[in-house]
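pasting O-acyltransferase for the record, 566 residues
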Amino acid sequence: MGSSVRGKDSKAVKTTTSPAMFLLSNHRDLCLTRANDAQVSHDDPVKTKCKGRIEVEHVISKKLQLKKKAEYLKSDLMRQFDTQVNDFMDSLIEESTSLEPAPVPAVFSPPMSDKERSKLRHFRPPHGEGKLFVSRRSLLDELFEVNHIRTIYHMFIALLILFILSTLVVDFIDEGRLVLEFDLLVYAFGQFPLVVCTWICMFLSVLFIPYTLFYLWAQSHSGSHSHLRLYSLLFGTLFLLYQALGLGFLPTYTVVTNSFPPASCFIIILEQVRLMMKAHSFVRENVPRVLAWCKEKNGPGPVVPQVSQYLYFLFAPTLIYRDKYPRNPVIRWGYVVSKLLQVLGCLFYAYYVFVRLCIPQFRSISLQLFDLRAMVLCVFNSILPGVLVLFLGFFAFLHCWLNAFAEMLRFADRMFYKDWWNSTSFANYYRTWNVVVHDWLYYYVYRDFLWISQKRCRPAAMLFVFTVSAVVHEYILAICFGFFYPVLFCLFMCFGMMFNFILHDKRKGPIWNIIMWTSLFLGQGVIICLYSQEWYAQRYCPLKEPSFFELLKPRSWSCERPDDRL
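structre below
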């Protein structure tokens, strides 16, 4: 690596000196030209005036050519220098992330004390290799410090202002007054007190039941009990029953029987999935520690996390359990308020996107019979609202919401996402879009599958990860929308798997990034179009006594009944 860097530096130096040599060479030629012209003028006084004019024109032409070449060389030099610096920094970052944590040399900072080293060990996985938490900022927080990137953020704010103005103007023209009734938001977040009560019951059950079961199981291994496998089978069965019934069935039953509206339903179901993943991570990370203690007997008893550590993990914006995480020294409450206000702004932004771009279109389209031409037009008309919803969901949740909670908890590792927008392959996009969920799937689904199969079925492990992700996503949408329409599941399992192998990590270059964005835009248009059509078809053409087959069949394929209901 050192020789490569020196080679790049020598190349940069060589490129840097070439403009100077070029200037000296042109200056010498210009002086010789002037001397020759002066000699001719001295020998022939009649031509002095003509030669003087020619000399001026020659000098001006030389200067213009020199200026153009200097500007070209300057731009080329800066482009080469920027490319070399970026390549060097990328390689440096890649090598530094692959290194094991070690005391920093004294050239950069004072050597780490024994206390700091022991504190760093808490951030490492309790067993084997796993995710290492380090203190770092979110990528958008760093990018927004650049004026050019912040201008894009300002453009989205300007678009929101235009949405608000257009809605107010249309309402004033139609109604003769300003209508500020946000009826869609009121409907979407209906039954909110019941939502809060359901969430409190879910959270308290996750706080006490998994921890108690794990504590009792660990204590059974600390004594001289016999039948340890029977204890493990008993507590493992109880934990799985709690995951399936206590967290899996009861919240879903509450949502379905009380007919929660979409936004309220999303709150409960997403929290259900999050808490199930956290409970699994807590048990998965701590069971090997107890088994290792039973094997080595290197202490008075197995290491059982404190309740406060488990409670902190339940609120922390990560799905990977650790006893301790890197923490910031203070809480910036101004930063917390700004992020929560941005979440609120994104909520109103989504409201205006649906009011101005989705509802007027799908309310009329859903009255028509299923037609290929109408479907194609619907998909392309849905790309803009679909992309806006994608950006809003990413910015509101993965950036603002998670950073707000991270700041309140002084959680220092803010890498909730990476630069997914620069992806040239869908494999890289899946890894960088949502790092929080990707880490859980990688460590607890993909790697555990390889461990069970003894690393002999990597394609099967990848297929299993895609299947789990697709099933969970479709489950969330089916429960929250109130109908089964496996559009997202098919996109995941068919096109997602296909693009994952076709657009793999070896695909580099801008053209592959364009292909990735084009596919992403079309996918968002398909999702918004089909789910919106089915939503209105379910309301325009309700079935009084549907059979099981009729529940699985999309209603939008056969709905022709006109109705003016929302």
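Confidence is low (pLDDT under 50) at residues 1-25, 27-47, 96-124.
The CA atoms of residues 4 and 88 lie 9 Å apart.
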